[in-house]
Amino acid sequence: MKKITLFFLLLSATLIAQKKVKVDLSNPNATIYTHLYFLQPDSYHPEKAAAVIYDKEGEDAQKIAIKLKKILDGKGLKVDFSKVPTSNTFSDTTGFKPGNRYVLFPYQMPEIFLEKIEGSWYYSPNTVEKVDLLYKSVYPWFTETIQQIIPEFGHKKFLKIELWQYLGIIILALLCTALFYVLKKVVYFTLRKIQYWIVHKSNEKINASLKKLTRPIVLLILSWFIKALLPSLQLDLDINTVIFLVLNIMVTVFWIYVFLKLVQVVMSVYADYAESTHYKLDDQLAPILDNFLSGIVVFIGILKLLTLFGVEPFTVIAGASIGGLAVALASQDTVKNLIGTVMIFVDKPFHIGDWIEAGEVVGTVETVGFRSTRVRAADTSIYQIPNSRLSEMVVNNKGLRAFRRYTTNLGLRYDTPPELIEAFVKGVRKIIDLHPATRNDAFNVEFTGFGDSALLILLNVYFVELDWNKEQESKHSLHIKILKLASELGVDFAFPSTTVMIEQFPEKKGLNTTYNLENDRINRVIDDLGEK
């Protein structure tokens, strides 16, 4: 009785197991599971797997179903059934063509997708038409030939890898090593030619950056080479999945490295260009651009790495946008300063070394950073002005003046004769006309008024040197020449004073200044100015 009971239990379990998996095309999940399940070694029924191919029968449908699985295996694309929809009415709304369709791997293999036809889900007729082309694009032409020449003992397995596959891995590694040294020279030579063709010059810094750029480019080429030949080894799906994941991570890291080095090369070229210009603000822009572009490269690279681990790109972008918005709201001042920095470099209201007046701040611009601008005042103290404020302020850029204007009044004594005033004015005009640091086509020297204790001679002159120190040297030279002219003419400068009339006092005499008004002497003094 026990044996009979055990027999029926085993029979029931067998029947249940057989009925557990059957051909099911009711939804995308069931169709894909039917296709892949019946092509597994322990449940191999290609005639059942062929049911997922629409409008094909017999061996043709079986070959197409087998090739589809090999294409996915060759690319290391493993289906995660927890993410495959189980609804019969599923509609694609991810940005691909709308309708009752499901794309298995929209970013790695968008050509393979399912469609709902006559109430059931099948591989799309478009996919079926492209199977042969996809197979040839995944597997090299010699793949079938390798399978035919491998002896029987070569198919023995160790750790899920056959012996001939171990040999193929070794050969592939040797090929990559040889190609590495060859490509390293070819790529470096090509980069040198491209760089010289673009900028027509080179230096040690640029060459060093190109050498650092060469290695990751070569590794990228080798990664592509490995990914192209690896399917020919027909490794197990789990092994292929791991290898392709590692390769994709390496490729992403290499691309990050390539773009970082490319930024360095571009910044090296830009730095050389900036040095050739007389605008020092261009020199200040180089490190800011370097940091900004490097940050963008790293940010995009991290987003790409996240997608390799199954995170949807749209989810990553949406998360980054929301996170960026949250950070922006939390640091509004920083964002405003960054925008102010951009406006300063775009508008260029001043350059490094310019003397500016911005509100209460007066001084020389030393550096323009991401957040603020540093201005050194005349007393050598430092002003740190946020760029958001500076971009909105009225900036008087003294460094952009075509000339430096100097205006003052020369006060002569009230008892100076008109003849000497005329001679003095004429002499000062000639000094300015002959002075190498002044404009001789735009100046004013005129007797303009009567002051409290002096006759006022207006001196309005323009210095051609824009540097503050040079301006002071020019003033010094001009003042000395004017003093010498006054001494030779016998003209005295007045100073604040009060005159008390004492001529009427007994035995007191007034202070009578005697002026030499001899015309020949005056003319000789004026003429001698051109010889000094």
TrEMBL record:
List all membrane-crossing ranges.
Answer: 163-183, 242-260, 288-307, 313-330
Q: Which UniProt keywords apply?
A: Cell membrane, Membrane, Signal, Transmembrane, Transmembrane helix
The subcellular localization recorded is: Cell membrane
Give the protein family. Belongs to the MscS (TC 1.A.23) family.
Q: Where is the Mechanosensitive ion channel MscS domain?
A: 333-396
What span is annotated as the signal peptide, if there is one?
1-19
Q: Specify where it is mainly localized.
A: membrane
Q: What is the protein named?
A: Mechanosensitive ion channel family protein
| InterPro entries, per database record | LSM_dom_sf, MS_channel_C, MscS_beta-dom_sf, MscS_channel_2nd, MscS_channel_C_sf, MscS_channel_TM-2, YnaI-like
Domain of life of the source: Bacteria
* Keyword Membrane found: yes
**Pfam families annotated for this entry?**
MS_channel_2nd, MS_channel_3rd
Q: Which residues form the Mechanosensitive ion channel MscS C-terminal domain?
A: 408-492
